[in-house]
Amino acid sequence: MEKFDLVIIGSGPGGYIAAIRAGQLGLKTALVEKDKELGGTCLNVGCIPSKALLTSSDHFMFAKKEAAKHGIVIDGVHADLGKMQQRKDKVVKTFTGGVRALMKTNKVTTFEGFGTITAPGKISIKSSKGDTQEIETKNIVIATGSAAIELPFAKFDGKTIVSSTEALLFTEAPAKFLVIGAGAIGLELGSVWNRLGSEVTMLEFLPRIAVGFDLELSNLLQRSLTAQGIIFHLETKVSAVKIDNGRATATATKDGKEMKFDADKVLVSVGRRPFSEGVGAEKVGVEFDDRKRIKVDKHFRTNIEGIYAIGDVIAGPMLAHKAEDEGMACVEIIAGKSGHVNYDAIAGIIYTNPELAGVGLTEDQAKEKGIDYRVGKFPFRANSRALCNEDVDGMVKFVADAKTDRILGAHILQHAASELIAEAVSVIEFGGSSEDLGRTCHSHPTLSEAVREAALNVEKRALHIMNR
Amino acid sequence: MSVEVKIPAVGESISSGVVSVWHKKSGDFVNEGDALFTLETDKVSTEIVAEKAGLLETKATEGQEVKIGEVVATIDDTKAPAEGKKEKKPPEEKEEPEAEKKGEEKEPVVAGADRGGPESRTSAATLSPAVRRIVEEEHVEPEKISGTGKGGRLTKGDVLAAVQERGKTEEKIEAREVQPSADGRFMRKRMSPLRRKIAAQLVMAQQTAAILTTFNECDMTAVQELRAKSQEAFTKKNRVKLGFMSFFIKASVEALKAVPSINGRIEDDDFIQNNFYDIGVAVGTERGLVVPVVRDADKKTFADLELDIAGFAVKAREGKLKIEDLQGGTFTISNGGVYGSLLSTPILNPPQSGILGMHKIMPRPIAVDGKVEIRPMMYLALSYDHRAVDGKEAVTFLIKVKECIEDPKKLPLDF
């Protein structure tokens, strides 16, 4: 029986990054993946394919609506969805192939099959063909990720009522696309199909979209998306989805009134649940919390010695980069080094246009915590590069401690917010203040100048706006 | 063989410092004379150079506080510079003319204008922009604040808190300075930094040395007559008046030669005998007492001594005395007589072992050859560190001073 220092179950961004780090640190490492391709949800049916489609459809929108403003005349613009999907598949294939190559270079043994912990230090792997093999290990990292939450009254059928996985595979844009849940996934996929021709309606139970992000910027995003043609129904509770002849009819209540929505496709994007069952964790006595997440301490240790867990399967935001950082930290700890994840410096991003990115505390969270805070804002319409780009939608907003000026949160709504947020994350990671960022030279003309201006506005000294 | 790089003694009353910048890294090959690191103390900043060529291994980090004598690095002189990386020895600096070298007091490398103030280049460069701004505006020392940021870095909040903390202690008390007590019966006043330094020095002297004072008196008739006779010619020739101080400096040098233990100091378990005569002369200023040091007093003429003292008085009044003017004295003379003191017990100026107290010249009746005569008399006091100096030696010293003053011909009168 082959014996390892470390076996990681699940090859998503948490698992494969942990495997690379373990290889770097000289641990004899194995990675167990139930699917044929490595990379988990993120690479195969999540972040990566959705971004591929978001970018393609964004370019399509540019060609269709924005190019003319720049004096570029394109006649007969149309989307070739088949080609778009092919390109998306190629991107995914390139990436998953790259991960497989990385496993080789880092001397990580990969097993294809469903890994189950049979005892501490023992894992049985059942391949898709049905044969089983056992491996032994000193340490186990559970990195099994998460799966889409199903609504009891709207079970996934893979055709009409779908999860994000299937919503990335449509071969034609549904005429009517209904999205239940206006979080990151719903907003992104709603955007993709809205751009590609669907009539998109989004139903959200809460009185706002993009929960978890700063309310002010979320509201601005809703306004932009509405202008793009997406229909929003907030505080709307869906109670049933009926399928009839391949078409769906959703029943919902809003302000006490019953409403009906018919659709060709229904995306249920109301969140994800930890994929914690079936890996044998419960059989060997690993504890779970009330939301079925595996309980771990600061060092990612479960209550069973030698068993660790990271990523979506434990508490915290379900984000690939959070899982990656936990994977690195966890393996470093297993190797006897110091590993640490700073949860205050993990940004969340919604890749709509404009993109919404946020890190740290929102203004409302600062208020709830009773923190004495100051806010600094700067709109992109006052930013030179945004004007050149003819892309002035959005703003930057900082939340800083009133006394120490430490940046507590940064929120950006902009076409390139996903890239712009990284600067704020770095400053937060170093415990920096708004003044630190404000005193750092930013190249001109760039969108990043708006980030600096918003930081300056915390102390009411932004340069290109009236400071209020 | 591997040699240790230790923190050298850089001045009196300095027992520790901070390694502010390493100019060489661990693993570098260093040549003899290469600057290894900058040592900063509360008074001076000095470059410490390699005494041997070899492979450097550092044992202290930048910003670390180090004690005098502490080993901060080793140099392995068996190792040759890495091949191909052989560092070229910089061209030999031109030898300074010997006279010029000697004429100037060996100046320690002081953190001067080119370094942009007391904070070293490195520490300033690693501060975040906001922290840097506050450090400069508020004159706080970043090395003394503990950081809560990543890797112990200082955040703006850390520095603001330090400024506020300082404000709490200082401003509160300084605010009280202008406020008398409620009933007006007393007034609280913040001591100046100089005053506080003096206070700390005095207490330290009292606590470390076994201080004892012995007294004598001297008849000033002969010196007064000599001064009256020579004053005009002396002033004309040297453009400085012939005062009493030069006589007492010369008399002290003679007495120190007769009783060497007073011209020494105790350091830990050792006694260090000084074979030079650098005499501190206490000068009162508006901001407090300072003690500039007359160097090699035994080799100087009366005119040189008077010029030195006059120069120090001007510099002290204008606040232009440098740290090196005040450092390294082997013995001190204090003249309370200028304020009218008849008798006092001076406190040692550590780590020195003796201090001579001069007092007011008073016409007093004394017995001269069996007859009562009125003579200009001065009481003399010698406070000494009994750990280093015996009672007999102290008494002998004062008698020697007395004899030289009462019969100045015993002094090398070079005017």
Strand content of chain A: 25-35%
CATH homologous group name of the largest domain in chain A? FAD/NAD(P)-binding domain
At CATH level 3, the topology of the largest domain in chain B is: Chloramphenicol Acetyltransferase
Which structural class do you get from the secondary structure elements of chain B? alpha+beta
Low-confidence stretches of chain B: 83-123
Domain tally of chain A: 3
Largest sheet of chain A: 7 strands, mixed
Oligomer designation:
heterodimer
Rg of chain B, nearest Å: 26 Å
Give the percentage of residues in beta strands of chain B: 15-25%
CATH class of the largest domain in chain A: Alpha Beta
| Integer tally of domains of chain B | 3
Q: Outline of chain A, from the CA principal axes?
A: globular
Query: In CATH terms, what is the architecture of the largest domain in chain A?
Result: 3-Layer(bba) Sandwich
How far apart are the first and last residues' alpha carbons of chain B, in Å? Answer: 57 Å
Please mark out the parts of chain A with pLDDT under 50 across 5 or more consecutive residues, or reply none. none
Care to describe what's here?
- Chain A is an alpha/beta fold and 468 residues long.
- Chain A has 3 domains: 215 residues, 3-Layer(bba) Sandwich (FAD/NAD(P)-binding domain); 110 residues, 3-Layer(bba) Sandwich (FAD/NAD(P)-binding domain); 114 residues, FAD/NAD-linked reductase, C-terminal dimerisation domain (Enolase-like, domain 1, 2-Layer Sandwich).
- Chain A is built from 13 helices and 22 strands.
- In chain A, helix 3 packs antiparallel against helix 4.
- Chain A starts with a strand and ends in a 10-residue tail after the last helix.
- With 415 residues, chain B is of the alpha+beta class.
- Chain B has 3 domains: 102 residues, OB fold (Dihydrolipoamide Acetyltransferase, E2P); 51 residues, Irregular (Dihydrolipoamide Transferase), CATH 4.10.320; 215 residues, 2-Layer Sandwich (Chloramphenicol Acetyltransferase), CATH 3.30.559.10.
- Chain B contains 10 helices and 19 strands.
- The longest helix of chain B is centred in the middle third of the chain and has 22 residues.
- The chains are: A alpha/beta (468), B alpha+beta (415).
- At the A-B interface, helix 12 of A face helix 3 and helix 4 of B.
